[in-house]
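Lab meeting tomorrow. Look over both lines:
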Amino acid sequence: MNFQSWMAAVQERTERALDALLPPAATAPQRLHQAMRYATLGGGKRVRPLLCHAAGELAGADPARLDIAGCAVEMIHAYSLAHDDLPCMDNDVLRRGKPTCHVEYGEAAALLVGDALQSQAFLLLAEHALADDPRRQLEMLRLLAQAAGSRGMAGGQMIDIEGTGQQLSRAELERMHAHKTGALIRAAILLGAQCGAPLPDAEMARLDDFARRVGLLFQVVDDILDAEASTVTLGKTAGKDAAQGKATYVSAIGLAAAREMADSLRGEARAAIETFGERGRRLHELAHFIVTRTF
């Protein structure tokens, strides 16, 4: 199967899994469940589930297990977007080509959507058997909790808020985005690997190296797209970072240097998993997809 067909297949099965794993819209409280589904379904590239499946394939994992792990990470991601768009944060009105969750359902509902999606993600990891060894499943819960919390995504968002209007150095930007964006991408990859056969420590270290570099790569490309692409293409407000005085790689080092950085990170990520050979094929392809994407 070529990469485009594989990606489409994983995206489709992820959408089906999310639809099945989210509470039904008709279940009380209906408005909250409708809003949760609105914020999660029918949009997005599903990069995190794709990375989860790619790493899981490398470890020979059951795709059904990868569906659960990938959906758990995607629910955390969807919750972060619902909160990120709130007036108290970025105050955005467009996400994935449609009105943001708080515009459609109100601020209070959007806040509760994030809370409920985060809980639902951990419920998935607790309810389903994703590893043969219970200790590995506990480690998966720890991984996602750390990636989402103050030492991960939430902490990175706080650093981002505090850095608004300031000129951050490249090192400060990398620290911020290793938490804000990279932590959840890293979790997606490591959770996928944990769903399969145990990998030798050396292979897990290489996979972790790849994950950290791809997490940073994703954010660099995101900053480039925010500066270059249109609102129609992105499905969200273009140029938002510059308008709000956000620190980005484009503002810190310039557009040309940001592109060079993205190319360099892609090379480093690919080199980290070179020894996996054909087993790492989908991860290689995803690194290429991330750096060449247009939305």
Observations:
- The radius of gyration is 18 Å.
